[in-house]
Design goal:
globular, Rossmann fold, alpha/beta, N-terminal domain of TfIIb, 2 domains, 254 residues
Length: 254
C-alpha cells in the first residue's frame, strides 16, 4: 500500500460520509450468525481504526493491523477515547506478512483494503495468513471494489473539501494490468493563510470474483459466498462493492 502519509491526518474528515456505523452494524449481524461464537476479531487493513473501534464498542476484542504507521497513529488517537478494556490492539504489519500472537474467531477487511494488493502472490499469501490465524470454524468477511467500478473510474476527476483541506483525485485504469491508479493532490491551509501542497499515488487491482473464490477455496476456506454491498443477496450486475464471506473448515486446525 503506497501513500497515506499526508492523507492520513485528514482521512477521517474527508471520508466523513463513509457510513461506518452502518457497515459495522452489518458486520456485527454477520458475526452474530457465525457457526462458532465470535469474541476475538482481526481487522485487516484497519486504516484509521474506525471499524475496529466500532466493533470494540460492540463487545469484541479486536486486533487491528495496517501497514501504514501514519494511519495507525490516527487510529491510536481515536481508540484513546475508549476505556482500556475496549481499546483495539493495533499492530503495524502488511497484510501478506501478518503475524499474530494468537488465533482469532473471525477476520474482517473493509473498504477495499484488499484491492491495494496488486500482485496475485501477495493476495494469495494474505488469504493463507488469515486462514492460519483463524480458529477452526472462523469466519472471514471482506469487501473489494468490483472490476466494473474500477473500469468506470478511468479518466475520472473529483474533489473532497473541508474548511482547511482540499483533496483532488484523478484516476486512470489500465485494462492490461487491471490496475486503477489514484493520483491524489492534497492542499492544506496553513496558519499564515498560505497553502501546503502534497501528492500521493494509490493503486488498486481489479480482482475478478470468480478468481477470488477459487483462491479462497484452494487456501482451505469453505462456504464461499459473494454478496452485494451490505446485503446477503447476490451482487447486481452494476455493483460497486462486493462482499465475500467464507469459513475455515472446522475440522482443519492448521
Amino acid at each position: 500500500m503506497s501513500g497515506y502519509h499526508s492523507l492520513a491526518g485528514v482521512y477521517d474528515a474527508l471520508m466523513a460520509d463513509g457510513a461506518y456505523e452502518k457497515r459495522a452494524a452489518w458486520l456485527d449481524r454477520q458475526l452474530q450468525r457465525a457457526p462458532r461464537p465470535v469474541r476475538t476479531v482481526l481487522d485487516l487493513g484497519c486504516g484509521t481504526g474506525t471499524i475496529a473501534c466500532l466493533l470494540a464498542r460492540r463487545g469484541y476484542r479486536v486486533t487491528a493491523a495496517d501497514g501504514s504507521a501514519d494511519m495507525l497513529t490516527q487510529a491510536a488517537q481515536k481508540a484513546s477515547m475508549l476505556s482500556d478494556d475496549l481499546r483495539p490492539f493495533f499492530i503495524c504489519q502488511t497484510m501478506q506478512r501478518l503475524r499474530l500472537p494468537e488465533r482469532m474467531d473471525a477476520a474482517v477487511s473493509t473498504l477495499d483494503s484488499l484491492n491495494y494488493l496488486t500482485r496475485s502472490a501477495d493476495l494469495r499469501e494474505t488469504f493463507r495468513r488469515v486462514y492460519r490465524y483463524l480458529n477452526p470454524g472462523g469466519v472471514f468477511l471482506f469487501d473489494v471494489n468490483s472490476p466494473d467500478k474500477l473500469r468506470r473510474m478511468d479518466g475520472q476527476l473529483w474533489m473532497d473539501e473541508t474548511a482547511d483541506t482540499t483533496c483532488v483525485w484523478r484516476t486512470d485504469y489500465s485494462e492490461k494490468t487491471g490496475i486503477c491508479t489514484y493520483h491524489v493532490d492534497l492542499f492544506q491551509l496553513r496558519s499564515d493563510g498560505a497553502w501546503n501542497r502534497s501528492w500521493e499515488k494509490h493503486r488498486e487491482r481489479a480482482w475478478e470474483p470468480d478468481q477470488l473464490t477459487v483462491w479462497l477455496r484452494e487456501t482451505g476456506f469453505s462456504r464461499v459466498l459473494v454478496y452485494g454491498d451490505l446485503r446477503t443477496a447476490a451482487p447486481r450486475s452494476d455493483e460497486d462493492r462486493l462482499i465475500f464471506r467464507c469459513e475455515k473448515n472446522p475440522e482443519r486446525g492448521v
